[in-house]
Amino acid sequence: MIGALDIGGTKITAGMVDEDGCVLASMSCPTNPAAGIDDAVKRMVAMLRDTAKEAGGMVSGIGIGCTGPVNPKLGTIGNVEFLPGWEGVNLVQILSDRMGISVVLENDADAAALGEWVWGAGRGTQTFLLVTVSTGIGAGLILNGQIYRGVSSAHPEIGHHVIDPSGPLCACGAHGCWESLSSGPALERWAQEQHPRLQPLSAREICELAERGDPHALAAVQRAAHYFTIGLANMVTLYVPECIALSGGLMQSYSLFKEEIQTTIQTNCGFVPYEKVKVVPAALGTQSGLIGAACTWLRHNAFV
Q1: How much is the pTM?
Q2: Segment 232-254, tens digit of pLDDT
Q3: Could you give the CA distance from residue 2 to residue 115 in angstroms, rounded to a whole number?
C-alpha cells in the first residue's frame, strides 16, 4: 500500500493506492498556501494517517505529485505560482521525517502521465503525452518508456508555450501562453467579463451550462476550445506520440471539445501522420493525480 499526495493550486488530495493502481481510500482539503508550509504538512500527515487507517494496511512509502517546477532529485519545491512561500521547501525530507518511511517527489503532470502510461490510456505505448487542463495546463511526456526531463531534471512547462502573443500576460512572463488562454481560470475570466451573469460560476459549471445549450456558456467554451486545440495540434506536430490522453476538470466535458480537436489537428498537422495519433480522454478519471503519485514511488523503487 502506497501513500499518495496530489498537491494542486486549489486542493491537496491524499490517499492510499495498491500496487495495481487501485485507490483504496482518499480525502481532500483546500491547499490554502497562505497558511504556510507547516500548516499544509500537518494536514497532509493527518490525511495520510486517516486514509491509511481507513484502508487498513501498512504503508510502504509515499509518492507526491506537486504542481509547478519541482526538483525530483533533491525533493524540493521550486518557484510555483500557485504556492507562494513554498519555494525551496524540501517536502521529501519533511514528510520522510514525520512519517518514518521513504518519500518520492515528482511534478504532478509527470506523475499523472506515468500513472496513465502504466495503468491507463497510455498502456502499451512507448511515446505518450498526458495533458491536464484544470487550474493550469500541465503536460507529462513519456518518450521511449521514460519521463522526459530537461536540463537539471527540469520538467518542460508545455502549458506555457505561446499560442497568441497578443493574449493576456501570464505569471510565466509570456503573453498568450496556452494556460493563459484555455485553462479553467482563463475560461472563467473571459466568460465573466463578456457575460456578467456568469460571474459566480466556475469553469466546470460553465461547461455544464454549455452542455445544456446556454449560448453565453457555449461561446466561452468555444473560445477556450479554439485556443486549447491549437496547442494540442502543436503537440501532435512536435512529438507525434502514439497517444495523447486528456484529463482535468475541463476534460470532464470532453464532448464539448472533441469536434474542435479533430478539426484543428486535421487542419494544422499536415506534415506528420496525425491520423496515427490517438487522442482520448484519460482512463484513470479524477483519481489520475493520486494514482500517478503512487506510481512515481513504485517506479522509483523499480516495482513497475
Answers
A1: 0.90
A2: 999 999 999 999 999 988 999 99
A3: 13
